[in-house]
């Protein structure tokens, strides 16, 4: 089943589950989007986690102002300072992606067993991704957790403070099937039977973010063939195809790029790519 993806102007209505990245500059904008997302989750009997860079008391006050005091009191919304939400590589401030995802899946199984329909998180972890090393680890986390979200009743709104992170936020926001309008022009996300999907537009303006994110998640793709569903990719230029080809060649693998756009097949052929193959049922006659 194709996952919902694309640019959105609101965090409301992304049901039953939706993994969305939201870049913001004004805290009030984040709080408005968080309230929309939380309200939808409560209406669907989902357990909510609210984790930001603040004390538990401050987070409860924010939720109270949103009108969710009763849900906090009954435990349907849990609050935690964001640094306490994640597991870290011992002795560092770098997220341990695998351990954090394992904890999340265990928590989801627990709340579903207790009668909830699923889990929904609102997390602002910008303070944990200020260095390239931190972002590389967080990219692994986003990739791995999105794989789980593709098949489990688990969703999240991942907020990124653009005032704090600047353009570096694009390296992580792109690893979501949904983003707020204008945040980043392309998305990399999970799907069943593939290593990942590509959607949106890949051009010079986003090439640096694409190249960085791709290198971070590339080792997580398993097998000799890396299968990419690019049917929702509206535009791509040659540097992105070359980047995929070079990554595959470096570790002796092949990229299988699935698309229904003849231009992509022609471009790949003109470039003479050795480790990238375009695959589509109606492109056999491309010359």
Automatic annotation (TrEMBL):
Residue stretches making up the MEDS domain: 19-177
Source organism, top-level taxon: Bacteria
Pfam families registered for this protein in UniProt: MEDS
Name of protein: MEDS domain-containing protein
The organism of origin for this protein: Mycobacterium branderi
């Amino acid at each position: 089943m194709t996952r919902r993806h694309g640019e959105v102007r609101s965090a409301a209505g992304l049901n039953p589950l939706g993994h969305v990245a939201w870049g913001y500059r004004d805290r009030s904008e984040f709080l408005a989007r968080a309230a929309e997302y939380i309200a939808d989750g409560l209406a669907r009997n989902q357990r909510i986690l609210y984790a930001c860079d603040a004390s538990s008391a401050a987070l409860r006050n924010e939720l109270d102002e949103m009108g969710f005091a009763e849900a906090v009191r009954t435990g349907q919304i849990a609050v935690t300072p964001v640094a306490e939400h994640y597991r870290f590589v011992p002795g560092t401030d770098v997220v341990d992606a695998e351990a954090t995802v394992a904890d999340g899946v265990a928590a989801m199984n627990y709340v579903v067993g207790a009668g909830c329909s699923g889990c929904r998180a609102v997390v602002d972890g910008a303070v944990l991704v200020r260095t390239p090393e931190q972002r590389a680890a967080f990219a692994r986390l986003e990739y791995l957790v999105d794989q789980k979200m593709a098949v489990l009743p688990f969703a999240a709104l991942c907020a990124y403070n653009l005032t704090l992170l600047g353009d570096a936020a694009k390296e992580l926001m792109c690893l979501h099937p949904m983003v707020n309008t204008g945040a980043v022009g392309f998305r990399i996300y999970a799907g069943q039977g593939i290593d990942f999907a590509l959607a949106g537009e890949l051009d010079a303006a986003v090439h640096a973010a694409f190249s960085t994110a791709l290198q971070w998640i590339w080792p997580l793709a398993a097998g000799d063939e890396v299968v990419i569903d690019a049917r929702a990719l509206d535009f791509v230029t040659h540097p992105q195809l070359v980047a995929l080809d070079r990554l595959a060649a470096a570790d002796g693998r092949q990229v299988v790029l699935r698309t229904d756009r003849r231009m992509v097949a022609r471009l790949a052929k003109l470039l003479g790519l050795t480790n990238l193959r375009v695959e589509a049922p109606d492109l056999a006659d491309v010359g």
